[in-house]
Amino acid sequence: MPQPWGQQRNPRPRWFRRNLWGLLFLIPALVAAGISPTIDMWDQIKGQPLVEVTPGADQWATYAGVHVRLESMSEEKTLPGYGGSTVPVPAGVRAIKVVLAFDGPSTALNGCQLYVVSKSGEKYASNPNELDDGKLTYDMCSVPEPDLFATPAPTGPSPSPGLVLRWKTTTYFALPLSAYAAGVRIELRSENPRYLVLS
């Protein structure tokens, strides 16, 4: 017997049944879309130095298994030049000389990032182009090259008993005249989220 007009023998499934598989795949896709930015943000936060390490009463701080002390931080009017000469600091620049003392394993701080921090909190990296006229060394945290294989005996009580390798480095920084140096910051990727502040 023929079906009345407008009726179908197999009525189409409703919208929900037609799209069931798409909906099942959509739910995990939405969850993944929400989780991925959260994971990326966490990775960025985790990779940032957020925990400040400071020195003790004896002015030595322990960072990456090395004892570190700020020996001096001074503003310089001239820079060491070639042949024992000196060159004036360029106009419009404040040159800061930092001397750090280290006591511990010679390679523990290789690859460190060294900054001078201003009183207003800005960071200024070492090896600035503004001071290229001077004959400057940028040893930063590593044993200076001429002393690379030396193991000098400490000249005083060592904060690292049993470790006789002690060395100093000298690094120069350039700050604008509007900035004043307040301290030194050392960062090492393997120590994140810890960073060292010396002042």
Structure description:
The protein is of the alpha+beta class. The protein folds into two domains: 15-46; 52-198, Immunoglobulin-like. It is built from two helices and eleven strands, in the order H-H-E-E-E-E-E-E-E-E-E-E-E. The chain has helices at 15-18, 20-46; strands at residues 51-53, 61-63, 66-76, 78-80, 86-88, 93-103, 113-118, 123-125, 166-176, 181-187, 194-198. The strands form three sheets. The protein has a five-stranded mixed sheet with strand order 1-11-10-7-8, with no helix packed on it. Strand 2 (61-63) and strand 3 (66-76) form a beta hairpin. The longest helix is centred in the first third of the chain and has 27 residues, at 20-46. It is elongated and about 90 Å long. The chain starts with 14 loop residues before the first helix and ends with a strand.
Helix content class: 10-25%
What is the CATH C-level name of the largest domain? Mainly Beta
According to CATH, the fold-level topology of the largest domain is Immunoglobulin-like
Tally of helical runs: 2
Whole-Å distance between the termini?
98 Å
How many strands appear in the DSSP assignment? 11
The CATH level-2 architecture of the largest domain is identified as Sandwich
Global outline: elongated
- Unreliable segments (pLDDT under 50, ≥5 consecutive)? none
Indicate the mean pLDDT: 79
